[in-house]
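Notes from the 1:1 (GR / supervisor)

We went over the backlog. Supervisor wanted to see one worked example end to end before approving the batch request, so GR pasted a single chain during the call. The sequence is below; no edits were made to it. Supervisor asked that the structure be written out right there so they could see what the output format looks like.
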Amino acid sequence: MTLSGQTSNRVGAEQVPKHDIDVGQLVDKQGINAFNVMVLVVIVLSTALDGYDIFVPGFIAPALIKQWHVNPAELGSMFGIGMIGIILGAPLFGWLGDRYGRKRMIVLCSVFYGLVSLLSLAATSMTQFTAMRFIIGIGIGGLIPNAIALTAEFTPIKYRSMFIMLATLGVPVGQLLPGLVTASLVPAYGWHVLLIVGGACPILVGLLAQFTLPESIKYLVLRTDRVDEVRRIVQSIQPGAALPKGARFVIPEPLFAADLSPAKLFAGELKFITPLVWFCLATVLLSLYFTVSWMLVVLEAAGLTPQQAAVRAIYFALGGVFGGLIFTPLVHRFGVAAVAFGFIVVGPLVACIGISGLSTLLISAFTACAGFFIIGIINGMEAIMGMLYPTAARSKGVGWGLAVGRIGSLIGPVLGAYLVGLKLTNFQLFLTPAAILVFGALLFLVLAALCTRRFGGVRLNDEAAIHGATIMGEHEGFDRLVPRPGA
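Structure output shown during the call:
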């Protein structure tokens, strides 16, 4: 098999010369093979452990109250500071991934927050432990945008949105893991085992990523000293391919300059799309963390024992896992329309969680359905972000989106505490996140219209976004054709 050059591929008025290999088209024209599956499996392992460490503080908190005699009110600062670390880490490592390589940042973040998690075993006070959670949060926040970007780079365009959603599905799967560790290992080894698992496993997966994941091929094309690595990746993407004599690698698409500023994320029509993405994601993340924080209170008020409430609350996480799985093909098939439907129905479902006097079956059903649509929407939003921006700024675009969106996850539990202090009824309590989700749905309908124009339809389309960016003048400040000297 021979890789032929492109003679008619145009960006603006420029052509890719014969024997120049467009790495974007090379990826897009391939089917799914063992290479794609291997990349996805390692990424999902990484994001699952990311999810584990996001939610594990809630399982450690009761032990801290007993062992260190912590006032429960102090736990709010621990949860909040960890989320602030995540908010800061996402854009920082998103920028570093665009500039120094996505694989490199995935490995660095995994090993970094794993080591700090192990170091937190030595903490002897709430102040020390809270500081450790802030540092861990920075590493957690930096992994996901790079994982999404790397997944996008190696997935053919036909399957890209689906693979991005599968990659991010690791986070809700990780939400289940602390409960499993608590049930199986904590009785025998104590609560410290939660930190050991949360530290050792990311380090092991980081080492696995170092030896199995490829670096982004489009990133490598921009470097002058990694030709052999590009060739090896091409052979993995297209086994048995023979490179034509004198071939070189090129990226004929607009590229953002590698800087930390988010200004380029507002070029052209993106000046409307980017803030809408941020606000929509913030509404659903606020509702997620509000619900997770106060769900047990509502379930017990409905007449369940604490043990029964805990079991029913697991349905929310299970619903989220199924939501990610089922929403993946739906968003792949119906694009922004599937996410819009999720936004429309999720608000009433969250409100129903607070209705008193319902049977345990209905409470469980509403809880599972709310988790299903909330996690499904989040995965769909991440897929949209992974397709909106050109290659060189994809990590940055996703990183800033997750960072700003996570402000909602910081506000959610605090808002819940304030509303509980007002002694609202359970139904009134959950009307608040429901109303915020309805507002998010209205915003998303506007976003869906803009994305439909940008993608050339409701389905997520990377090429349409690229050409739309060129047509709307978003190429200002970009390189339009980046050649890579090849052998």
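Supervisor's comment: The mean pLDDT is 78.
Batch request approved.
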